[in-house]
## 1
Amino acid sequence: MNSRPEAPEHAEENGQGGIARTRSVLARLVLLSVIVLLLGQIVVAALAVTGFEKALEPQLSQKAGAVGKAVADQIEFVVDELQIPPDELVGVTPFLEKILRSNADIEYLLVVNPSSEVQFASGLSPEALERIVPHLPDANSARGSTSEVADFINSVFPIAADGRVVTVLHVGVSGEYVRGRLTDLLYEAITVIVVSLLVTLEILMFLMSVRVSGPLERIEAMLADGTQGVFVNRLAMRARDEIGDLVAALNRALRGLRQHYEDFHFDVREIQDAQIDRGIVGRIRAACQPVEERYKFTGGEELRPRNAMQIRVPLFLFMFAEELPRSFLPLFIARLSPTDAGISDELLFGLPITLFMLAGMLAVPIGGGLADRFGARRVFLAGIVPATIGYFGTFLAQGYYDFVAWRILSGVGYGLIFISAQAWVADNTGERNRAQGMAVFVGGVFAATICGPSIGGIFADRIGFEATFLISAGLAGISGVLVYAMLDRTVSGRTKHGTVLGGREWRILVSDVRLFAVAVFAAIPGKLILAGFLFYLVPLYLSELGTRQSVIGWMIMLYGVSTLLCMPLASRFADRSGRHATVVAAGGLAAGLGCLAILIDDAVGGPSGAVMIAILALGFGHALALTSQIAIVQEVASRHGGIGQASAIGAYRLVERAGMVLGPIVAAALAASFGYRGAIVGIGVIVLVCIALYAVMLYLSRSASAVGGSEMA
């Protein structure tokens, strides 16, 4: 009795220490697995790039030889059989240009007489001709022989008539082409390494959390309850592994304890019934009462290992499916767009993206109410149906308007799944680990943002746009199967997720200058530049520059990478400095100025380099702004009595999504007037103007507060 009051405290300390040790071991295992995987992938990628480099040049030479032989034979037939002199041939240059258009890896085709005078040429500028012709091999070279001329691999095909060489065909393959293909391969190798690492981490974290750390934390909690005399619960887990054996042994021990306790009570009742003296019966009851007060064996439940990580893999798979078409979606829309719609092509390209965002925005509050009533699991499964059908319908789409309809259907599913996943996290976390749970949710979304566009670009290059949508449909269906199999079927009513907001929330949003400034002049422009610049303008502009889909996807991936890497440092700096409003302004300033890098693209490696800088700046700016915006919303909510932080964040999120809806339309309108390059600059200017208005409103608000405070004083 004398040491009993200290037991709960020691149990809690031991439990927390055990959990910390478990997580430390799991972190080391994950790190070791990642290192081994990374080393193996780097070795395989290096071997692949080296082998590709060795094999590409001979294959290009063979390709040049095949093309050169076919062209030389046709010219030789005309010159030798038809007896038409080479300098009298007609239509040779258009013929050569057609050959070049059909063979992108061949740089030039030249017909040169034995005196080194160019008769016909295609693929080179006059300046390049002057530089190359003096170094071409002479007419006596063997047919099909190759040599390096300037930066090209040149193949020679003498053309004879009446037994003598009358002209020579030169076929050139650019060394730049070889280097370009190697660069593309390097991008794809890096992309595959990054994506496979992230996918491996997702699976490892899921397995460790659901199969190891989650059950161990439950076991430690049950053992901690046991030190306080509570033996009412049992853990439901049927895994056939070491953890499953441990759970089964613990459940058997608990059943044995309960059986001994029941046997003890049965024996006590028999002894009581055998007594005639009521005083003895009272003393027996008094002796048993401390045992009944100290130990508890009834009234428990069957516990299931539930935590936020259970939703992460299904959420990651679905978001990955949605992000796959990100790098080519506007290009696919452009292919389907009608020519007689009566509005500009740019607006046609942006309208399906806007309608998708709008459908998702409207589905979120509906999904929140459904999650309150039916549970997050059922709403997630319900959202999978329209999303998967929408992806599959997009794969089958034959025209613009049915494509728009399928994308709207996918948007409804997206909104339902987004809010249901967030609801599951809220249901399965408490006040002490709510932030960690939301980090699980945000981490899954950002991991998909990194993986999806890059792999989707590679798929688009290899198998086409339509087949990539079919893969999205398959991944979305798999995510639904995982949710059905792994998530608990019980309906939780602990947390309200509905985002149907009352008039008080909106009045505070409008009347509070600080909250209004953050929502309208920081949050909306932040989402506007994300949807308008990254989702709409980047694919179209880079495609106009001739960039391959795999490279476009790799560049879009940089947004997620930069955001994910910078966000922990940005949030830590904002919390320590306490200047959340200033950090939000700095984030918007970085994003807006990044778009203006297009104006100095010659100084930063060309248009592609400028776009890369703008994407990195956008990721850095959002890393600064996002967490500080939420902190400001929570601070404002705490100042106003009667409004919860969840309601304030719900109103803020709903307003913020308006930027996603407006982004593609604003970008399309700017592109129709100023082109894609001008539209990027225009988006940056809009963001900078909004940030300036945000700063002015905050300054006026602080000035008014200072004046009000002095008057009260």
## 2
Amino acid sequence: MERTYWYKDAVFYQIWPRSFKDSDGDGVGDLMGVYEKLDYIKSLHVDAIWFSPLYPSPNADYGYDVMDYMDISGEYGGMEAFKKVLDGAHQRGMRVIMDLVVNHTSDEHPWFQASRRREEPYTDYYIWRKPKRDGTLPNNWDSMFEGKAWQYDEERKEYYLHLFAIKQADLNMDNPRVRDEVKKIMRFWLDMGVDGFREDVITFISKDKDLPNGFFLMPAAKGITHYSNGPHLHEYLMEFRDVLDQYDCVTIGEAPLVTARRALQFIGGKRPELDMMIPFQCMEGDCILIDYVHHPFSLLKLKHIWRHWQDALRGRGWNFLYLENHDHPRIISRYGSEKYRVESGKSLAASYLFQQGTPIIYQGQEIGMTNIRLKSIDMYEDVQTINNYHSFRANQPEQKRMERIWQATRESARTPMQWDDSENAGFTEGKPWFYVNPNYPEINVAAQEDDPESLLNFYRRAAELRSTLPVVRYGTFKMYYPLSRKLFVYERRSKAQRLLVICSYSPDPVKFRAPRGYDLKKGQLILRSHGDKVENNGFVTRPYETRVYLFQDRRGPVEV
């Protein structure tokens, strides 16, 4: 099938289904809740929905521990509800992307249960090892979520590898039968009409067959050099590409620690293995490698990361643009200002939405949802959050430990979506599965719907502009004022158009003067957060002020 590369003109919207909208009052978001909100999603001028896992799961990692790859969890409404949402999205001109989680399965998956009993052909579907002669673990690798990466199974009398939670057993992708299973899963969903996959930790699927000891790199990552970008990774991804090329679909690879240069090994060339890679580096504006190793937010660092990815991929690969997803805290609480929530939310939005690439908006990001701060670790549910809390030094004061959780827990992105100011933020008529952020009476969709100056309508306008301005897809990228600690200013330029994006990251006034070659009074101010006053070809910013100017270099003004 001829590919159209439709994703290059698209804006994606990510749904973490458990917290989006509950339709039946059981306190858990579901697919009929999504169906009720399809028109809302479409109103954001998005072109595709990415669903975090919807498969049956015991929820040790909320869907990322899969029990059945070819079904939809009854908790979410089952296959009938999924097909209804799929059809409804397609009728509205939106594509649907599934999460594909094939590095590991749940230990409750039938494959694992058969493997632990040594039933063929499943005996080698997972990575099993005997204890060493002295009875110790097969190697010293760490799990990302729970202690060491090996769990002893009493029935099989061997250890199995789990790079994440204990209940997430790693598949043995070196077994060709396992790779055939992956291809079968892909065909199943693509034949149903799904439009592609976000492939979870896909760069971990090939391990060094000798499983040698790792050296210390960072907390919870010992051994990562022996399974990240493993020896057969590219070979296996090209096998999967043979299936994907039969469909007009998109593949997005999640690759922890990936650099722009390494990303091009996957998304560059005449026949790329993947279409886009998720750049974790854009989440490092206030941390080192992982959210729990925190430092004060640095705009200089973030600007350098953005510029590096834009320059490195220009003409060679396609960027995936994001500021929030289900695995990171809320961005206004990290890079912006809760005091100037709306203003900083607009600055953040314009900072990434007009770069070259395919942007994703995560549920609640468009209304400026913020981090939640629960009083006790006992109130949290996430396996990673709880593990990180107990991994902190035992002699740390409780307040200090909880402050690190408040800064870094991904559960801040998983609180129920705030639809209105009614009980439980309009998410459910029952008891929510998790705590609703207490600021929902102020921050909710209904409060912003009809306000032309709201963050919600700013996102709508920005997403709409992307679809009308070819310069956003095709233009070059250039950053101005690279040493400013308060301004992020960048240009997108094509033969016919120039876009100048000016974003303040400061609550204080900042003097801005247009770069050489720009006359602000001759440009169209197509998006703004405050006023339009210009003096001496510049202006003094108000708190977190944002402006986007369009310059038409041929013919006349463009209708936008």
## 3
Amino acid sequence: MKHFNKILSWIDNQHIVFFLFVVLISLPNYVLFFTERLPLLTRVCNIVLPFSVFWYLFTFAKKPGKMFWILFLFIFYDAFQIVLLYLFGESVIAVDMFLNVVTTNSVEIEELLGNLIPALVIVFTIYGAMIVLSIRSWLNKSTLSERFLIIQRRLSAIGIMAGAVLIVCCYIFNDRFSLHHDIYPVNVAYNMSLAIGRQMSNKFYFETSRDFTFKAKSEHSADEREIYVLVVGETARACNFGLYGYKRNTTPELAAEKNLAVFKDVLTESNTTHKSVPMILSAVSAERFDDIYSQKSIITAFKEAGFYTMFISNQRPNHSFIDFFGEEADFSTFIKEDLPATANVYDEELLKIMAKHLSECKKQKVFVVLHTYGSHFNYRERYRAEDSYFKPDTAMEAKFKNRDMLLNAYDNTIRYTDRFLSHLIGALKMWGGSAAIAYTSDHGEDIFDDSRKLFLHASPIPSYYQLCVPLIFWASNDYIERHAEEWTAMMENVDKAVSVNKEMFHTMMQIGGISSPYRDDSLSLASHGFKNMKRYYLNDHNEPIGIEETGMGALDVAKFKESGMVYP
């Protein structure tokens, strides 16, 4: 009882609470000092200036608990930031992190949270205690003296002046320094404002793109029976495909197929679904991403050219451009939309719906987009128990010690994708006529692959494993006979460096014989005039940067060289 009263008197001491809050509200700054690859001067400034500003602000309340709640947005940032640092080990909360919260469905969030328990325990312990202390402080009858506050104000002002001098020095000695990029929490507040701005722009998309047209026309014969299918995979990385030299036979059925064009050096321009997929489905690329607010997708281009269009997704709608583009199709469905949140639907259902709709619509020319759930975590739920080939695969916790089982499960998802694509090829062979399939993935995935112990995707700094994706084309014999030039060109280009988001639109347009002012054959993999271009990555602020500017480390560069891929 004596010790309890002593602790109670300690936590009721407004002076102690004052300094505790000032120190803890800058907790992420101390961690970022060690995690961020920034000049020493910038890292020091990132502690001195924010700490001093918060110190100064707390002098304007006689009860620290009151100021705690006034600054609660920054407490929220701190909690989010600590979870992010636990997950990725570096970087501040990015714009895409805020948008991922909006565009990720509840099931995915639950799966992720279940693997962040240590981080959540830390957050709830620290900030839960701060909330309790803040309430006690606010209700406490005692207050900080004016003299104490004046002294602290003067001292913190000196700290702010020192921080201001450091800021000036940072600008002088580092031409890449900027306050809204490098100083926490200014950068997080800036990123949140950008995220809100993007969400607002999304809301007006139908207005800003209403009058857009590709002026598309079909160059192929009107009596030619045609079907083209674009399969957009999820979280599939190229290095785990047998077709790409992986040590495991994860693609036995595709390996047995003829008429395959397998591109070996392919990068995505974003490691997030909500940006990568819309670029795959449109003429927009990292270099002109803002055009997405005024343009429509490849679905509309084929539709204008007289094709019957379908969009079938095994993902839930999330009010992003994926939804907007999908709605352009003559037939559009998100097969999980009306199912319970816990419903687990396998990708094979996409093929069943496509086959049923093809038999009912009886159209001569068809364009289909299939958006799979592919290899998204939790891997074990992406395939049936009887499809478990690599075992054991039962561990689901995102821990380094489970790496072998997680990898087994992941490789099973690739085998499932292999069978999915093989069945799709079989269906198109039965359909007859000119047929072609393009398969790629939005991004890859980290699976505790090296000493960094990185896991998942969408990290602020991408890795080799998140950027390298598969790109596979198949064409029917009839298509190759009718359009030999396109197929010959494609086979000639398989060893060239590809940015899949930039080049998919133009390639599919040429394969489908769709003319448009927006089609650029120098960006088409089915063109003899295809040119190797500089490859870009769409960073968090939607700026195109070279892959060498992404912040990837020596381990990533080594993997590029080991894989024989072009870097940068």
